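Blinded run. Sample ID left blank on purpose so nobody reads anything into the name before looking at the predicted structure. Input follows.
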Amino acid sequence: MEEHQILIDELLHLLNGGNAHADLKRALKGLPADLRGAKPDKLPYSIWQLVEHIRIAQWDMLEFSKDGSHESPNWPDDYWPKETAPKSDEAWNKSVKQIELDREEFMDLIKKGDLYSKIPHGDGQTILREVLQAADHEAYHVAEIIVIRRLMGAW
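Blinded prediction complete.
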């Protein structure tokens, strides 16, 4: 039982950013609003598009983990916003807040402790797999956000 709790604690820590790199909150801290939609030369996306992509993908993984009636968006088109910048500060704040809320809901699933049972409506996935995938996905795109900020001289 102690080992299982250690795993739960480590997964919670991982979803909150882990130890090895900056988390999303740190990657976005102090980002000037006018740079949210900027795309450095030859990069295919803006920070806004990355933030929205993180939100959409995490939401999809969470809903899949909870609900057998959930239908995922069409890949890849519906996972990436077309607009390069948020329509407003409100849209930006709403997206960032939703990422935080969905992450908290993932943490609630972890705390229930059933990490290894197959998700009934899946094809072999477990909560453990979905959590690891969500954390890995976010970390990957957080690194891209930091690179974009560095390229724009805003890190």
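Unblinding after everyone has recorded impressions. The radius of gyration is 16 Å.
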